[in-house]
Amino acid sequence: MKYVVLLRGINVGGNNMIKMSELKDCLTQSGFRSVNTYIQSGNVLLESDLTDKPNLTDRIQAAIKATFGLSIPVVVLSADDFKAIVAGTPKDWNDNADWKYNFIFLKRPYSLNEVMDGVGELKPGIESITVGQGVLYQSMSKALFGRTTTGKLASKPVYQMMTIRNHNTVTKLAALLDIV
């Protein structure tokens, strides 16, 4: 089965540095097949016979810990789940060049109510969130980013329950799934 694995918080601001070639070797040596990475922010496509996502998540995190000495949270999605998330993108999304569009992938286990409470009250007209299956579709004004609630997620405890990818990265990963 094909999977998308999203590592949280690597190669950001000089912290948790992992070379993608070394990550690929780590996961291949751990028994995963067809391991490919996309850009330096921890996006991995791989194949495994495992179908239990919590077990798969644990195995990937353990391999990263053993190889790099880092406790890196990961979000694991089957190729079908990932494609459904992309297909579920709101219809009017990514239409305004003055806005930023992100997919906020939620790390299991999570409570959607807890996540939304942790995000806080959104500011109408400059940001929005649409809830999807295991994802939040985030959009916000680029010019007014500093005034948005969601622009300050990194300073909130709820941030530990998510990993964020921009629209272009998610679109590219979806395209790569068909050729991997």
In CATH, the homologous superfamily of the largest domain goes by the name bacterial protein sp0830 like
CATH class of the largest domain: Alpha Beta
What's the helix-strand series? EHEEHEHEHEEEH
- Give a count of the beta strands, DSSP E runs of length 2 or more: 8
Structural class label:
alpha+beta
Q: What is the CA-atom radius of gyration, in angstroms? A: 16 Å
Please tell me about this protein's structure.
This protein has 180 residues and is of the alpha+beta class. The protein folds into 2 domains: 2-82, 2-Layer Sandwich (Alpha-Beta Plaits), CATH 3.30.70.1280; 85-166, 2-Layer Sandwich (Alpha-Beta Plaits), CATH 3.30.70.1260. The chain is built from 5 helices and 8 strands. The protein has a 4-stranded antiparallel sheet with strand order 2-3-1-4, sandwiched between helices. Strands 6-7-5-8 form a 4-stranded antiparallel sheet. A hairpin with a 4-residue loop joins strand 2 and strand 3. Helix 3 (79-87) packs across helix 5 (167-177). The chain is globular. It starts with a strand and ends with a helix. The relative contact order is 0.18. The mean pLDDT is 92.
